[in-house]
Fold this sequence. Notes:
The chain is mainly alpha-helical. It has 4 helices and no strands.
Amino acid sequence: VQARAPPDCDFDEIMQSLARIQSDERHWRHFFRANALMPVDVCYEDLEADYPGTLAALFRALDRSDAIVAAPRLHKQSGADAERLRAQFLEELRRRTGDDAAPPVS
């Protein structure tokens, strides 16, 4: 069995995905404002750090503090490949923008 080479970072595809995510986020914010709704923000980092606590807070905000928080079915998929791809992306971002402190998302 021949081992597959690890994938390379596709900078343009990542930037297109980020643009779609940002557009979707704007549309959702507009939807909530237009319908006088208050969204409940949940951050991935909060879920990662305290999954049960974050979901409990979400359910409280939804007036469902009686909801049962099940164990997560997914696990973080990071490792050497993810770090290598992140480094490739950030290097390409710096190369294209000329900004050493350029953030990947606005």
